[in-house]
Amino acid sequence: MRVVAMADTHLPARARDLPAELWAAVDDADLVVHAGDWVRVDLLDRLEARAARLVACYGNNDGADLRARLPEIARLEVAGVRLGVVHETGSAAGRERRCDDRFGDLDVLVFGHSHIPWDTTTPRGLRLLNPGSPTDRRRQPHHTWLSWTMADGAIDDVVLHRLPPRTPPVRGPRPA
């Protein structure tokens, strides 16, 4: 099973749309994961229409329309893997312990909020993945998203995809 994960898309505040490379990956994926901060519901509609399967949650920047359609924490068992999706896990310090305590029933937890890619395994063996953001890199060097494969209860081939820099819009001189 091919999985694509993203978070913190913040459309249209941070970009007009998802990058073309990410849409192509969505079209090829068996499962698409979004870990919140959509901002507007139209991206949810488009991902639901294009993704073979979507599992997602809302984030702290998502309003009532998104919260009415998405859970705070999404859970799914697929390909023998117990997968969870949540937007916030708190600060990086102590994250592994907190997630072991809170998500002991999962094998993989995808989260967002920080816009910082993350891939660690907790002492209990929970895999923690943050895809960063494909549209709002903040202080990171690249816009990013994740892909991996799952089969027979295992996750393999985790790849952090770094998108090429976008050309900033050309701005004319300011009127005097």
Protein described:
This protein is α/β, with parallel strands linked by helices and 176 residues long. It has a single domain (2-163), classed as Metallo-dependent phosphatases (Purple Acid Phosphatase, chain A, domain 2), CATH 3.60.21. 18% of the residues lie in helices and 31% in strands. It has four helices and ten strands. The protein has helices spanning 20-28, 41-50, 64-67, 95-102; strands at 2-6, 31-34, 54-56, 73-78, 81-86, 108-111, 118-121, 127-130, 143-151, 154-163. The strands form two sheets. A five-stranded mixed beta sheet has the order 3-2-1-9-10, covered by helices on one side.
Number of folding domains?
1
CATH superfamily: Metallo-dependent phosphatases
CATH topology: Purple Acid Phosphatase, chain A, domain 2
Low-confidence stretches: none
Helical content, roughly? 10-25%
Profile the largest sheet: 5 strands, mixed
Could you say what the CATH architecture is? 4-Layer Sandwich
**In the CATH hierarchy, what is the class?**
Alpha Beta
Number of helices: 4
User: Strand order within the widest sheet?
Assistant: 3-2-1-9-10
What is the mean pLDDT? Answer: 93
**Count of DSSP E strands?**
10
In short:
This protein is an alpha/beta fold.
Give a quick set of tags describing it:
4 helices; hydrolase activity; Phosphoesterase; 5-stranded mixed beta sheet; metal-binding; Metallo-depent_PP-like; Purple Acid Phosphatase, chain A, domain 2; alpha/beta
